[in-house]
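Hi everyone,

Forwarding the result from last night's run.
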Amino acid sequence: MTGVLEGKVVLVTGAGGGIGKACALLAAAQGACVVVNDLGVAVSGQGASEGPAHQTVAEIIAAGGHAVANTDSVADRAAAARMVEQALDEFGGLYSVINPAGFLRDGMFHKMDPQDWDAVLAVHLGGAFNLARAAVGHFRDQGEGAFVFFSSTSGLIGQAGQANYAAAKMGVAGLSRILAIEGKFKGVRSNVVSPFAWTRMIDTIPLDQADEAAAQWVEQMRSRMRPEQVAQLAVTLASPAAKAVTGQVFVARGNEIILMSQPRPLRSVTEENGWSPQTIAERALQELSADFYSLENQAEVFHWPPP
């Protein structure tokens, strides 16, 4: 059976471990030549090592695939451009970019170090921009190309202690939407995957030990949600098999794939003579309140066991 990425070239970031590695291995197994990017940092983004990227490349080659390593940072704009150039130089093309690279620096917002805010936005949102900007011209020129970005329910829904990560991941969803709209008539697609999978990053999320729902959520992730399951969706979206799919946000949760809603008008109220603060408070907010969203976190929203 021919793989969905047969003859294509794919750049996968953060591919030294976790979801990125699972995506790189599956892309290669599905026929792609893979540029395996990983800076080799700790979960907090500190340090660097060339080992993880080269280990993934070695596994792909040992399985009969084709891959090269890249150990640059997605947060470096010039380095992102080099990743695209490496794909073109080594394999003669680039069809898709799968971008799960990132790290966490969690903390309650009132205690958050501004440097931790800047660092997380630089790798998650800045990295998404850098890669998209480096690759989009090539995609438009060749009339086809796919971005698969990674968001998080920490941003789409909410999780205490992750303001920097949530803000970045909501920004990624917005960036992907615009890339899809602008690329509609140029064959350039962009979609978002929000993954549930037990990785070393998830293991660092601060949780209230007295929160039973949160504890159950963690146990479900540890026992039933794996990076390989997320990779199945990401690789499909990165392939011609999904050429009609763009501008969407998905959640991959165990063996479950969920299409997420995107902000659209819910309800409106009108005052023909114009509003005042008093009438807004007394009438508008009261009438709209039936459709207000509650402050549920991601564990409370996704409360059912994954299949």
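The first strand starts at residue 9 and ends at 12.

Cheers,
N.
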